[in-house]
């Protein structure tokens, strides 16, 4: 199972009611209204020495009809056994935006033993004006921050928007690697290399992939890597983040956009400190939002940059 739910800022195991454990408290999907998404799943562990019989997966909440379980009910768990429960996002035509529900695990007596929150981002279609806004992307990801606008398009000038910070470079915050995790991509379909360290010296990290037969990787949350990794170690260096599309390289630093890519947007990236839904800041984690063209949507490529502090 592909695990993608903010492992850099969330714990990987949540306990709701012993002896039943679930590996994540939330599943996040994206897709197009009227179409079915790829499956996403969570894992249940029976931590006891006795079998758990008659467990049922129950979808509840305002948008419960926009999700489907693929696991046959009832579910049985052997002692110290585990099972992966898969779901899909199936927003009906015309149902757009952020859609939320809950998947409850209920025993034979009707008691809720644990639950997993569900969120799905439903778009009109793929590319262009059919894409979701950056603010809706942020809301679906469970982040509480104001990007500064609610429409698809915005200004590309250097004036800070919403909760945006002015710093454009970083240092590693503590021991271990820095992580650059792709969390959203809404751009044309091409391979997209990412890199770090001081421009114009670029140190490759990973490459975002092309769409597949079953998934529009270039218009989705949590796009896959075609190659490379999400982690790197900049040592003590001050660094920025860069993406390389077929048309140009975009830099977090305005100075390098002006010098090296004068035909493109100078303020190519907006950077926001990360806060979870309750408004609690997540230490040393930032949302990095790239503008590929000139329409100011800033959701062409969106990353979580973890284990860093901004550099003046």
From TrEMBL:
Residues 18-121 form the Cep192/Spd-2-like domain. InterPro entries: Cep192_Spd-2-like_dom. It holds the Pfam family Cep192_D4. This is Cep192/Spd-2-like domain-containing protein.
């Amino acid at each position: 199972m592909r695990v993608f739910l903010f492992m850099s800022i969330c714990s990987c195991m949540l306990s709701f009611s012993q002896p039943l454990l679930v590996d994540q408290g939330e599943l996040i999907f994206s897709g197009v209204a009227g179409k079915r998404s790829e499956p996403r799943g969570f894992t249940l562990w029976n931590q006891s020495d006795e079998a758990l019989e008659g467990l049922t997966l129950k979808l509840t909440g305002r948008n419960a009809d926009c999700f489907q379980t693929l696991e046959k009910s009832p579910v049985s768990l052997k002692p110290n056994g585990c099972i992966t429960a898969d779901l899909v996002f199936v927003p009906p035509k015309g149902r757009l935006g952020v859609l939320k529900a809950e998947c409850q695990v209920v025993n034979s007596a009707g008691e809720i033993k644990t639950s997993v929150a569900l969120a799905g981002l439903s778009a009109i279609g793929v590319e262009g004006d059919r894409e979701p806004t950056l603010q809706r992307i942020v809301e679906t990801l469970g982040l509480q921050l104001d990007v500064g606008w609610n429409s698809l398009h915005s200004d590309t000038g250097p004036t800070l928007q919403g909760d945006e910070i002015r710093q454009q470079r970083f240092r590693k915050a503590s021991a271990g690697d820095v992580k650059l995790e792709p969390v959203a991509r809404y751009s044309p379909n091409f391979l997209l290399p990412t890199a770090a360290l001081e421009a114009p010296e670029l140190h490759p990290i990973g490459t975002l992939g092309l769409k597949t037969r079953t998934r529009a990787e270039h218009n989705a949350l949590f796009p896959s890597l075609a190659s490379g990794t999400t982690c790197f170690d900049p040592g003590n260096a001050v660094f920025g983040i860069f993406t390389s599309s077929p048309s140009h390289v975009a830099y977090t630093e305005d100075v390098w956009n002006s010098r090296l890519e004068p035909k493109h947007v100078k303020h190519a990236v907006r950077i926001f400190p990360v806060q979870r839904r309750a408004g609690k800041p997540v230490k040393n984690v930032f949302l990095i939002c790239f503008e590929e063209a000139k329409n100011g949507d800033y959701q062409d490529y969106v990353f979580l940059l973890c284990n860093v502090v901004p550099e003046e």
